[in-house]
Amino acid sequence: LIINNRCILLCDSCWLWWHSVHLIPVSTANKNGVSSKSRKRIMPDPVTEPPVTDPVYEALLYCNIPSVAERSMEGHAPHHFKLVSVNVFIRHGDRYPLYVIPKTKRPEIDCTLVANRKPYHPKLEAFVSHMSKGSGTSFESPLNSLPLYPNHPLCEMGELTQTGVVQHLQNGQLLRDIYLKKHKLLPNDWSTDQLYLETTGKSRTLQSGLALLYGFLPDFDWKKIYFRHQPSALFCSGNCYCPVRNQYLEKEQRRQYLLRLKNSQLERTYGEMAKIVDVPTRQLRAANPVDSMLCHFCHNVSFPCTRNGCIGMEHFKVIKTHQIEDERERREKKLYLGYSLLGAHPILNQTVNRLQRAAEGRKEEIFALYSAHDVTLSPVLSALGLSEARFPRFAARLIFELWQDREKPSEHSVRILYNGVDVTFHTSFCQDHHKRSPKPMCPLENLVRFVKRDMFVALGSSSTNYYDACHREGF
């Protein structure tokens, strides 16, 4: 794999670097240049990680370009455990940028779905055919006004790409093989009330959810598919007003700003790029160029040029490196953790309530899907204590599994998985449990206690409920 003037040989035990010339398309045998084993890894591993943090490697992981079938740990449990319920949180798939670099030509990405174009999935044609016929039912407003699949020869801003559709068809197929074929989570005559589907009002999240469901369900019956609309990217429903959460966010944004001011190399890079596109540096920075640059990178499209020169990989590497440094300081300063505990509480509380109902024997909503954004998953990961987890890549998935012990039917346990990796014992509420118990999962009551009480304790206040924590004085 030749990237950024380097030839990188990826293997499980070594990284060898040679100098070369240009960014060259990755071979189809392993399209993102990272083995399926290391591609899904979220915690640093001294064997498979590069010797130092490498921005190109991290960007490849973020792109998540579909490759060989992914090995995952979903659905793994001793034979005497029965799978009872699954709650899935996804980030939408690969999308066109939300911002453009001023005075440059937009990257030419085709957002129609074409069978003979890579990446491809065996269900792609059937998905297009099914979506093109229309749903025949109505989703919660305003979702019924959104297109069911991407279909523009030149992508619109923020539009899901073919890569994004294939990522979630692949996610759905993987989960189907595990949860339906192996564990029979849904009965053959499954009904609407056994699914809970919720998405924001963006076409990319609705379409990602539909793609995953099309890969997942054995019978995609429109009469049984109903998406609820969530106005907030935090999925906070009727509990979105939280002044203290907003104060944490303001302090976190201030921290980001101060870190950027200290990075002289970053400022020089923005200055060089601004000269190339002939705009003030502040205007370029406000246009968030990394969003567009990631699109160029993930789709192997040359970075833009003007008569003043070209934006290049060295610029991209500096900006991406700063992002990685920002994430590292964010974990250390804990301001984002405070924001996350309050920002993620409503959706975690809803999830816990659903898991408790399933543990009581209720058969409604045994499979839940939240089709969301990076700004949804990131606070949830942080709130759970998964501070080492990588920033949500395109088509990231976070899954809560509920299991019943057949030998002790009153006992229920949970597993938490992120991109196919079991992170249950990395969570703050269960990080020591495996030392005391041979069970490869965590008691449900640990998660319940964390969401109902310990999340507020972690804020360092005397609050015992979400409202008080959001409105406490003197923060």
TrEMBL record:
Catalysed reaction(s)? 3-O-[beta-D-GlcA-(1->3)-beta-D-Gal-(1->3)-beta-D-Gal-(1->4)-beta-D-2-O-P-Xyl]-L-seryl-[protein] + H2O = 3-O-(beta-D-GlcA-(1->3)-beta-D-Gal-(1->3)-beta-D-Gal-(1->4)-beta-D-Xyl)-L-seryl-[protein] + phosphate
- Signal sequence span per UniProt? 1-23
A GO BP annotation: chondroitin sulfate proteoglycan biosynthetic process
Per its record, how is this protein called by name? 2-phosphoxylose phosphatase 1
Cite the record's note on assembly.
Answer: Interacts with B3GAT3; the interaction increases the 2-phosphoxylose phosphatase activity of PXYLP1 during completion of linkage region formation in a B3GAT3-mediated manner.
Alphabetized GO MF terms = phosphatase activity
- Primary localisation category: Golgi
User: Function of this protein?
Assistant: Responsible for the 2-O-dephosphorylation of xylose in the glycosaminoglycan-protein linkage region of proteoglycans thereby regulating the amount of mature glycosaminoglycan (GAG) chains. Sulfated glycosaminoglycans (GAGs), including heparan sulfate and chondroitin sulfate, are synthesized on the so-called common GAG-protein linkage region (GlcUAbeta1-3Galbeta1-3Galbeta1-4Xylbeta1-O-Ser) of core proteins, which is formed by the stepwise addition of monosaccharide residues by the respective specific glycosyltransferases.
PANTHER family the UniProt entry points to: 2-PHOSPHOXYLOSE PHOSPHATASE 1, ACID PHOSPHATASE-RELATED
Topology in membrane: Single-pass type II membrane protein
Give the UniProt keywords, A-Z. Answer: Glycoprotein, Golgi apparatus, Hydrolase, Membrane, Signal, Signal-anchor, Transmembrane, Transmembrane helix
Q: Record keywords: Transmembrane included?
A: yes
- What family does the entry list? Belongs to the histidine acid phosphatase family.
Per UniProt, subcellular location reads as: Golgi apparatus membrane
Spell out the GO cellular component terms annotated for this protein, sorted alphabetically and separated by semicolons: Golgi membrane
